[in-house]
């Protein structure tokens, strides 16, 4: 009996250390994953896009990153299934993010960007090693455990969370890029945000609203309250497009990003999105 209990304890410890189980109990693990793309942007001149991606790992919340690897190129395909397997070491004590940059391989000119996205590694683990993040331009990725046995793709919701409710939220941003610099003199923009939502990663878009403009700020906090009727089963996504309000020309794009609303609710209605170009956007309960 003592030997059996010892064996059970050893197996439990191994599961925690090496990631044989999924969920919030996993503190460290060796993760192997594969990636697919769906509904990618078509940048091909003759035929469709020839996509590949480069994946990098950040262990400081997106401030810096190191290359993990590059996928093969798949010719003439907007819904690629890359066969490459990538491996990283997960450590919950670190603020780890994966950065995916998808490109169109061009032989006669510079490769075009098809989309980018940051993925929180702890969230990916807690979803059972499967995630479907939206790219900033068009389409989405499917990231899943290369060894099979993927989980639900959902973060656990707090006990007592209703299946549907009206969410009221406010936005703030930090470290936005500037577009109105004069030579070497940096000037702060006048940012505002356009918000839409979809049902699922590739659903049709529905307008949520627009914030007011905050003058001369790289770190704006908007006072507007936006609302969304959330239903858990719809897998709703919010897309945020940030612009610099210009009176004399077209408004410049400062960044855009997506958030899975189920994740926002699971995290207590506060969530920070790392924008693919520069800066962060925080969504919090109003």
Describe this protein's structure:
The protein has 286 residues and is mostly beta strands. The chain has helices at 2-18, 121-126, 261-266; strands spanning 28-38, 51-58, 66-70, 86-91, 97-104, 112-120, 130-131, 140-145, 164-174, 191-199, 205-210, 226-231, 236-244, 252-260, 270-274, 280-285. The chain has 3 helices and 16 strands. Strands 4-1-8-7 form a 4-stranded antiparallel beta sheet. Strands 3-2-5-6 form a 4-stranded antiparallel beta sheet. Strands 12-9-16-15 form a 4-stranded antiparallel beta sheet. The protein folds into 2 domains: 22-145, Immunoglobulin-like (Sandwich), CATH 2.60.40.150; 164-285, C2 domain (Immunoglobulin-like). The radius of gyration is 21 Å and the shape is globular. Residues 1-22 have low confidence and may be disordered.
How would you sum up this structure in a few lines?
It is built from 3 helices and 16 strands.
Tell me the strand order in the biggest sheet: 4-1-8-7
Can you write the helix and strand succession as a string?
HEEEEEEHEEEEEEEEHEE
CATH topology of the largest domain: Immunoglobulin-like
**Beta fraction:** 35-45%
Give the number of domains.
2
**In angstroms, what separates the terminal alpha carbons?**
55 Å
Largest sheet: 4 strands, antiparallel
If classified by CATH, what would the architecture of the largest domain be?
Sandwich
Q: What is the approximate shape? A: globular
What is the number of helices? 3
CATH class of the largest domain: Mainly Beta
Structural class: mainly beta
Round the Cα radius of gyration to an integer and report it: 21 Å
């Amino acid at each position: 009996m003592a030997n059996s209990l010892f064996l059970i304890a050893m197996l439990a410890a191994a599961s925690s250390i090496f990631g044989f189980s999924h969920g919030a109990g996993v503190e460290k693990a060796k993760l192997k994953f594969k990636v697919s793309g769906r509904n990618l942007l078509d940048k091909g001149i003759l035929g469709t896009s020839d996509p590949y991606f480069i994946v990098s790992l950040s262990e400081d919340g997106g401030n810096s990153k190191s290359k993990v690897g590059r996928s093969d190129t798949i010719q003439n395909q907007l819904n690629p299934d890359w066969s490459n397997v990538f491996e990283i070491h997960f450590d919950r004590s670190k603020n780890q993010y994966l950065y995916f940059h998808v490109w169109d391989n061009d032989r006669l000119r510079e490769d075009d960007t098809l989309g980018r996205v940051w993925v929180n590694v702890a969230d990916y683990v807690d979803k059972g090693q499967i995630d479907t993040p939206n790219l900033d331009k068009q389409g989405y990725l499917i990231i899943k455990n290369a060894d099979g046995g993927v989980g639900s793709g959902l973060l656990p919701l707090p006990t007592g969370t209703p299946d549907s409710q009206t969410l009221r939220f406010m936005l703030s941003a930090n470290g936005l890029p500037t577009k109105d610099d004069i030579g070497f003199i940096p000037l702060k923009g006048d940012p505002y945000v356009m918000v839409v939502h979809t049902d699922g990663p590739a659903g049709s878009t529905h307008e949520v609203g627009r914030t007011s403009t905050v003058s001369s700020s790289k770190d704006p906090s908007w006072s507007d309250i936006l609302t969304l009727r959330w239903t858990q089963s719809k897998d709703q996504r919010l897309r945020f497009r940030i612009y610099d309000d210009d009176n004399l020309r077209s408004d410049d794009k400062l960044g855009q990003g997506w958030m899975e609303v189920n994740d926002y609710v699971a995290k207590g209605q506060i969530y920070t999105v790392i924008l693919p170009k520069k800066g962060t956007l925080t969504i919090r309960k109003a």
